[in-house]
Design a protein that fits this description.
It is a single chain. The protein is elongated. A five-stranded antiparallel beta sheet has the order 1-3-5-4-2, with helices on both faces. A two-stranded antiparallel ribbon has the order 6-7. The mean pLDDT is about 90. About 35% of the residues lie in helices and about 15% in strands. The protein is α+β, with helices and mostly antiparallel strands.
């Protein structure tokens, strides 16, 4: 069974580009867009106002958080969005735009969060331990709605058992196959679903 996932994505785009990406009408619609302490339509200027107010321009401008739900979960976009709003409220005092995407085989929430707290002027920082707390809060919400959970107890210093098993299997199969098609076939024979598209940066695996 696939798990839910919470991850912080590298902020490589400008704020404007990131907001345009998560609110793309090809991926979502306006009923699945919300703002915490801001409005989606004017979030870019609101983020900028907060930074100018506290003289906090420079460095990381925003955080991009993705909350993905398992393809096995019986969840509607509306419920996913409701969960996303509750999850975003965990980050007290931060301006966040939440958008729910339905263009993949799994529903997922994108959140663009201003790096500066609009109440205190403090920049957002998160330790490994705090990230585990964030994942556990997401798990609490998932349990409340009867959904699968993410793995919250793994640390950055150790690889989760399921990931180590996947890594070993992928290396073993790669060393014993000669084509992309054979690799996918062999992995699927061992219970792993493989999403390998030439226009995607990464190969995605779904574990048994």
């Amino acid at each position: 069974r696939a798990m839910a996932i919470v991850k912080f994505v590298a902020a490589k785009r400008t704020i404007k580009s990131a907001l345009n990406y998560i609110t793309n009408p090809e991926k979502t619609n306006e009923t699945l867009m919300s703002g915490i302490n801001c409005t989606p339509e004017s979030a870019e200027s609101e983020f900028d106002f907060t930074k100018r107010k506290f003289n906090k321009h420079g460095g990381r401008e925003y955080y991009h958080i993705v909350q993905s739900f398992s393809p096995d979960d019986n969840i509607t976009p509306e419920i996913a969005h409701e969960i996303g709003i509750k999850f975003a409220e965990y980050f007290k005092g931060y301006q966040i735009v939440i958008s729910t995407h339905c263009d993949k085989d799994h529903i997922h929430n994108h959140m663009i969060m201003n790096s500066v707290n609009y109440k205190t002027g403090k920049k957002f920082h998160q330790s490994a331990a705090e990230l585990i707390q964030v994942k556990e809060f997401s798990n609490e919400l998932c349990r409340e709605y009867g959904l699968s959970e993410t793995e919250a107890k793994s640390s950055f210093k150790s690889m989760p058992k399921w990931k180590e098993t996947l890594r070993r299997k992928a290396y073993s199969v790669a060393n014993n196959t000669c084509s992309k098609e054979d690799f996918i076939y062999e992995m699927e024979m061992h219970g792993y679903k493989v999403d390998w598209k030439d226009d995607h940066k990464y190969i995605t695996f779904t574990t048994p």
